[in-house]
Amino acid sequence: MLSFLDFEKNIAELEGKLQELKHLSDIGDIKIADEVSRLQVQIERALKTTYGKLSAWQKVQVARHPERPHCVDFIDTLIEDFTPLSGDRTFSDDAAIVGGLGRFRGRSIVIIGQEKGHDTDTRVKHNFGMPRPEGYRKAIRLMKLADRFKLPVVTLVDTPGAYPGIGAEERGQAEAIARSIETCLSLSQPIVSVVIGEGGSGGAIALAAANNVMMMEHAVYSVISPEGCASILWRSAEHAEEAAEALKLTSQNLLKLGVINSIIPEPLGAAHRAPKEAINMVGNSISEALNELQAQDESVVKRLRRERFLTIGDDALTT
pLDDT for 182-234, tens place per residue? Predict the structure, then answer.
């Protein structure tokens, strides 16, 4: 059974009735198969209505859904012969960032992503997707490896933000993030980035300073979490819903603002309802982006990437 969010109560009730019916046999003139079909139509209608008008805060909840596909799910489905590479050759390995070499639809690539984990054990192992400095230094090492061997880079962003612990700060968290952004912008090979869930703060842009930045339909991407913003502005996380609206963190808002290049549609009811379908949609978008970018000269790829980030916000300043 799926985990249902607060705003999905009507859908949860219909799904519960559907599961009950599937375990019953025909009773008199009542045909269970017909009732099941009617309920499925009602569920589909309810999903279309609910997901067609999600608020920013509801989008945040969907992006954080525990059953939403994570980085390792995308790698397992899309990447053949994946060879993980570990460590930053300075301090240690950070499990919050997963990366390595593999083949994506016949194309050799370097893939790097933030992993949150699926259950208590894996969430603790991956530090809930919050990288430490050694994670970003590992990403830098992999990006430079890709540049050396002329391989495109694909990054999957899903983090509430970089880890703010004392140890991380002592080991140069801010510097590591800045170096990662600098490395992204300096590569001569194409970089394609997809925000697959939650893109939080510099911890996200450290992997998303790419030629082509895409977001899944119900992902979010922001300079700070709604709770963090509310804590600063209102001194209370209770205003998170209001903060989410003000932050303009949805894919639709960010496409209008020119922060991202495109939105990847999700299956009806979001990616957690049909993970394989959602992952394949992302794979198709990545493939199209790489085909376009790899047809360009290396100097053009690098120049256009830098120009893209330098000109973000220009339209807003002139209107």
Answer: 999 999 999 999 999 999 989 999 999 999 999 999 999 999 999 999 999 99
Mapped onto helix, strand or coil, the DSSP state of residue 53 is coil
How far, in whole angstroms, is CA 18 from its chain's centroid? 31
Bridge partners of residue 222, in order along the sequence: 200
Helices (H) and strands (E) in the chain, counts: 15, 8
The answer to whether 163 touches 121, Cβ cutoff 8 Å, is no
Does the 60-317 domain belong in CATH 3.40.50.620?
no
Tokens standing for residue 101: 């070499």
Alpha helix ranges (H) inside the chain: 9-22, 32-51, 56-63, 71-78, 120-125, 133-148, 166-170, 173-186, 201-205, 226-233, 240-247, 251-257, 275-293, 298-310, 314-317
How many CA atoms, within 13 angstroms, populate the side-chain half-sphere of residue 215? 26
SS3 content of the chain, % helix, strand, coil (to 5): 50, 15, 30
Q: Which two tokens stand for residue 6?
A: 């607060």
- Please say whether the dihedral angle defined by the alpha carbons of residues 238, 242, 246 and 250, taken in this order, is positive or negative: positive
User: Is it the case that residue 29 has pLDDT exceeding 50?
Assistant: no
* 147-193 pLDDT, tens digit each: 999 999 999 999 999 999 999 999 999 999 999 999 999 999 999 99
Q: In the chain, where are the structural domains located?
A: 6-53, 60-317
